[in-house]
Amino acid sequence: MGYTAELWKSIETIYAAILRHPFLRELTNGSLSRERFQFYAVQDALYLREFARALSLAAARAPRDEWIIMFNEHAAGALKVERQLHESFFREFGLTPQVVATTPLAPTNLAYTSYLLALAYAAPFHEAIAGLLPCYWIYWEVGKELERAGSPDSLYARWINTYASAEFGSLVRGVLDITDATAAQLTSAELDAMRRRFIVTSRYEWMFWEMGYRRESWPV
């Protein structure tokens, strides 16, 4: 592993805070309320729609053909494969796709997705992929960590297994490889810019679970 090892070191305290978050602790022990998980799942589905747009923008700016293909495939996957997971949850919650699609983005979700779209549209490619990486990498690491403990709740166990899976891990490794290959060509100032973007979106990952736990709404 190349520069991505340095990136991970830069968020060790953030990742530790994520693992301590009550949303994930209660997801694992099965005590997380359905209301909180439902709120999170709906917002996550809305997030993935915007994340897919950001991936497509990154694909359009990628310098290698195989990277263009990969990011576009990931964008399609975000809308297809994970939508299947979410919609299986929504059926259990009694929610229609139309209700989910018309739900407003919570403040943190809107801020996070707006930041990702701005990066993918206007920042240099290396900064864009650094900003997109935590959504992949942190979820994979969280999935593996939580899988070791498991969950007595079958719905929560299904969520955990999705992100701990070898299939998801292979997607993450692909993005890690691109990030390392890109970083190998950069100056120290450009690497610092990557780190800053990576830290910001890692913080947003913590905030996303906090948003779900609080069922965040606009204060005014």
From TrEMBL:
InterPro entries: Haem_Oase-like_multi-hlx (IPR016084), Thiaminase-2/PQQC (IPR004305), Thiaminase_II (IPR027574), Thiamine_Salvage_TenA (IPR050967)
One MF term in the entry's GO annotations: thiaminase activity
Record pathway: Cofactor biosynthesis; thiamine diphosphate biosynthesis
GO biological process terms held by the UniProt record: thiamine biosynthetic process; thiamine diphosphate biosynthetic process
Top-level taxon: Bacteria
All copies of domain Thiaminase-2/PQQC, residue ranges: 8-214
EC number per UniProt: 3.5.99.2
Classification via Pfam families: TENA_THI-4
GO cellular component: cytosol
SUPFAM superfamilies for this protein: Heme oxygenase-like
Gene3D superfamilies for the chain: Heme oxygenase-like
Keyword annotations of the record: Hydrolase, Thiamine biosynthesis
Family statement drawn from the similarity comment of this UniProt entry: Belongs to the TenA family.
Entry function: Catalyzes an amino-pyrimidine hydrolysis reaction at the C5' of the pyrimidine moiety of thiamine compounds, a reaction that is part of a thiamine salvage pathway.
Database matches in PANTHER family: BIFUNCTIONAL TH2 PROTEIN (PTHR43198), SI:CH1073-67J19.1-RELATED (PTHR43198:SF2)
Name recorded for this polypeptide: Aminopyrimidine aminohydrolase
